[in-house]
């Protein structure tokens, strides 16, 4: 169906581990002999009531135990790409958390090669071009991030950029200055989560200390008018995830989400799903929900879609072909 929310778009803020649906989690658990602390998919879904970012992260990391082989990662990414394509996604920049897997004894090469297999055939299979972005877990030491960066050297042909995720407060971007310098020297693009639960100062630091080209979330930038002015002037893209913000209690209800105010302020915002298996919707559902809750017009939705291609790590001719 040609719904306005299904218009061609790019998804720029999507954690592949956050696309693990309960059904696939149980199937992989059975295949890999992993015991899940939930009786069935219903009981697991019941656990999806989060009080904040950390309460989500606890479940998100626990469920990853089912991902063990390269095939598991391929299957996970294939399922996401098929669903995203059906909702108008023509280009996806996919985050993954290497340290969450290596800490469980899954080699980084298994993760990257498994994901890359799905991503690299996605254009042919699903009509979706892709990029892969490795995120560092900011609540682990910077040394661990640096080791992780070094460990992917053999796989750099599959990786476009670096990001920063996990528990934000108390782990400011500056902690990763050297890691981002090294990533830049390796030719990698740079993004970071900032201003999801952390203060506007973290958004500034991500720009000034890490040199990021996009800010993931950036929601709390709205508390700082000078910062907003700068983000507008420099056309810094913010990858918003409205359903995530409601589920993790950054905003009370979708009707209160500042997306519309951010568009009105002239910010370069995009709409994304973050961890769709956990937050109640993929990007098409997210577009639908914000349209209903915030009264966005077809023009507003087209602007969001246009922004998503402009903010993507695509060459101009690739961006034109994708939309
Ligand atoms: N924030 C921080 N870390 C994350 C998120 C998020 O929304 N999703 C997965 N890891
Ligand atoms: Zn995120």
UniProtKB/TrEMBL annotation:
Cofactor note: Binds 1 zinc ion per subunit.
Site (Important for catalytic activity): 217
Family to which the UniProt record says this protein belongs: Belongs to the metallo-dependent hydrolases superfamily. Adenosine and AMP deaminases family. Adenine deaminase type 2 subfamily.
Described purpose of this protein according to its UniProt entry: Catalyzes the hydrolytic deamination of adenine to hypoxanthine. Plays an important role in the purine salvage pathway and in nitrogen catabolism.
Residues the record marks as active site: 196
Protein's name in the database: Adenine deaminase
GO-annotated molecular function: hydrolase activity
Claim: Transmembrane helix is one of the keywords in the record: no
Pfam families in the cross-refs: A_deaminase
Catalytic activity: adenine + H2O + H(+) = hypoxanthine + NH4(+)
The protein's required cofactors: Zn(2+)
Domain Adenosine deaminase: 8-320
Gene3D superfamilies in UniProt: Metal-dependent hydrolases
Naturally occurring in which organism (per UniProt): Streptomyces changanensis
InterPro entries named in the record: A_deaminase_dom, ADE, Ado/ade_deaminase, Metal_Hydrolase
Binding, substrate: 275
